[in-house]
Automatic annotation (TrEMBL):
SUPFAM superfamilies: Cytochrome P450
GO MF term (any one): iron ion binding
Family from the record: Belongs to the cytochrome P450 family.
Organism lineage: Eukaryota, Fungi, Dikarya, Basidiomycota, Agaricomycotina
The protein's name in its UniProt record: Cytochrome P450
Organism this protein belongs to: Mycena indigotica
Pfam families linked: p450
Residues binding heme, per UniProt: 505
Cofactor(s) this protein cannot do without: heme
Keywords: Heme, Iron, Metal-binding, Monooxygenase, Oxidoreductase
Pathway annotation: Secondary metabolite biosynthesis
Signal peptide: none
Keyword set includes Iron: yes
PANTHER family documented for this protein: CYTOCHROME P450, P450, PUTATIVE (EUROFUNG)-RELATED
Length: 563
């Protein structure tokens, strides 16, 4: 069905035009993609042609050399395929492969199936930690892939002179659109789009977003107050779920000027959250073997999760264009360059894909960070009391707890959040960068061949005694406040929860404000404790955290009482 709507100031937009690169009379899109888009869809390595060749070759051989029969063709297929796979496996596992000198599990050397299965399990962060503990700073995690955890690798891989994103990121773009999301842009195209993002995230932009967040926080607190009242002074709340409602609603405000009301509804009534979560998880899994994607997309109906996500994006963007800019400027306003800074206006489809990215990148990350902080406070009552006392002293009355102007005074709370982000970075292992074709490179003192994909997993780096000691696995917020001593290691350069370099988190400062505002408002208003301390919703909650590029968690059941 063709979707159309009227913009407040101009003609109408047709989303079929966006998808098919056509331009109807009156469509807002402006000139064709190639002249205005900051990116184009690259040609991708696909499975289709090799698959076709492998299947056709034995048929041709049999028909040329033997009698063409089903049995002969099947036998020939079996010989060709097993010889092909065996020779690939022998090459990858053998001493001829350029990564032969890098240790790692045998299965990882010969096929991507190992990392595919690992991602599916959600245990990637924990398994990588075990492997690095066993093998050292560099581990081979795929036929042409390594994981590196020397702190120098952060700067050398992500920083100036580092490497571009690998094919892992390709599936994060909608193949039906003639553009890519910021997360999947490289080089100049990335720098151009990121410039617009950075303008949106400047101090004036942040101030506006903060007011939007404050409104959402007030809704969440009033829902909690209601539950406490109904529960005769206490309420049992799944804080992990409520933080997701909060961050999802807030990201909806930012990306599409609102329209999501999970806080108001107390849940995912429209199934939107589920769509986003399933879409992000499916993408992360398929991103392990991106060359399968174009072939996979040809199977009718196979891509139903991404189709739902796409429909959701179209509808949200449609509603935003229809509504126009509200009282406060959202990120859409900045990304669409509604205040006319750019010589050439960004095309609508760039903003559409980045709108979805805002929701995927900004909701689970922040909600996991909030949940993990609360979890640590519940596990460490003495630290909780100290953080609460600091909030009380900085914000003597409850209303002021949403004032970000005093965040600098929240030294201990900031250290507690930073320590949470260290022990459990919401993007625990991230995506890889790729060394270009040509020469091998020396990274953190190791020679890594051309065309290798490199992971630099924050979860492992943050728990290395070389970077944080003593007690790298302990929750010790004080480590960020103590003055340096010979007995301690605190490597600030190894803290990479927001990644590093030109493609680090585009909303790092916003995320910090969000974390400080939400935690101080909660600590100020409630006393909290685990409902069932000795369970998976209590002290064992950490074991429910799964790494699907972004993090998935189980419920975190907390008893709230008003202070
Ligand atoms: C505690 C909260 C957050 C954490 C820990 C976090 C972490 C990260 C990390 C590690 C990356 C790099 C990913 C990669 O290279 O594969 C990233 C990128 C990104 N983040 Fe965040 N993020 C947070 C919140 C947010 C929020 C609230 C937004 C949206 C408003 C956001 C938007 C983005 C975008 C757009 C990128 C891609 C940047 C680029 O490629 O240039 N993030 N984030």
């Amino acid at each position: 069905m063709r979707r159309e709507y009227k913009d407040a100031t101009a003609g109408s937009v047709c989303f079929l035009c966006i998808q098919h690169g056509t331009q109807r009379a009156g469509c807002l899109l402006g000139p064709p993609w190639s002249t205005t888009s900051t990116s184009t869809v690259s040609s991708r390595r696909t499975l289709t042609t090799p698959l076709f060749a492998v299947l056709l070759q034995p048929i041709l051989l049999v028909s040329a050399l033997h009698t063409l029969s089903v049995l002969n063709v099947l036998a020939s297929e079996a010989i060709v395929i097993s010889t092909l796979f065996a020779s690939i496996a022998i090459y990858r596992a053998g001493p001829w492969h350029p990564l032969a000198h890098v240790p790692g599990p045998f299965a990882a050397r010969i096929s991507k199936y190992w990392s595919f299965k690992l991602l599916l399990s959600g245990e990637k962060h924990r398994v990588l930690k075990e492997l690095h503990d066993k093998y050292g700073d560099v581990v081979r995690t795929g036929p042409n892939e390594v994981s590196m955890v020397h702190a120098d690798a952060i700067r050398e891989v992500f920083g100036t002179g580092g490497f571009q994103k690998g094919p892992f990121y390709e599936p994060w773009s909608d193949p039906t659109l003639p553009t890519k999301a910021l997360l999947n842009l490289r080089g100049d195209a990335h720098a151009n789009r990121r410039r617009i993002w950075n303008r949106g995230m400047n101090s004036e932009g942040l101030k506006g977003f903060e007011q939007v967040l404050a409104k959402r926080l007030v809704i969440m607190l009033s829902q909690f107050d209601k539950m406490v009242k109904e529960g005769n002074g206490k309420a049992t709340v799944d804080l992990a779920a409520w933080f997701s409602y909060l961050t999802f609603d807030f990201m909806g405000d930012l990306a599409f000027g609102g329209g999501f009301d999970m806080l108001r509804d107390g849940g995912d009534k429209n199934g939107l959250w589920a769509i986003i979560k399933q879409g992000a998880k499916a993408t992360a899994i398929i991103a392990q073997t991106p060359w399968v994607v174009p072939t996979f997309n040809m199977i009718p109906g196979a891509n139903f999760i991404m189709d739902r996500l796409r429909r959701f994006a179209m509808e949200s963007a449609s509603a935003r264009v229809k509504a126009g800019t509200g009282e406060s400027k959202d990120l859409w306003y900045h990304l669409m360059d509604e205040d006319n800074h750019e010589k050439v206006k960004p095309p609508l489809h760039d903003v559409l894909v980045d709108g979805v990215l805002v929701i995927v990148a900004g909701s689970d990350t922040s909600s996991v960070a909030l949940s993990y902080f609360i979890y640590q406070m519940m596990c460490h009552p003495e630290l909780y009391a100290r953080a609460q006392a600091e909030v009380d002293s900085v914000y003597p009355d409850a209303e002021s707890a949403l004032d970000s102007g005093r965040h600098d005074e929240l030294k201990f709370l900031t250290a507690c959040i930073q320590e949470s982000l260290r022990l459990f970075p919401p993007v625990p292992t991230g995506g890889p960068r790729k060394i270009p074709a040509g020469d091998a490179k020396i990274i953190a003192g190791k020679l890594i061949p051309a065309e290798t994909q490199i992971y630099v997993p924050a979860y492992v780096i943050h728990r290395s005694p070389k970077n944080f000691s003593p007690g790298p696995d302990n929750y010790d917020p004080e480590r960020w406040l103590r003055s340096s001593s010979d007995k301690e290691t605190l490597n600030h350069a190894a803290f990479m929860s927001f990644s590093y370099g030109a493609a680090n988190c585009a909303a790092k400062h916003l995320a910090w404000r969000e974390l400080l505002m939400a935690t101080s408002a909660l600590l100020k208003r409630y006393n909290m404790k685990f409902v069932a301390p000795e369970s998976k919703t209590g002290k064992d909650w950490e074991s429910t955290m799964k790494d699907f590029f972004v993090t998935e968690t189980g419920g975190l059941m907390i008893e709230l009482t008003t202070r």
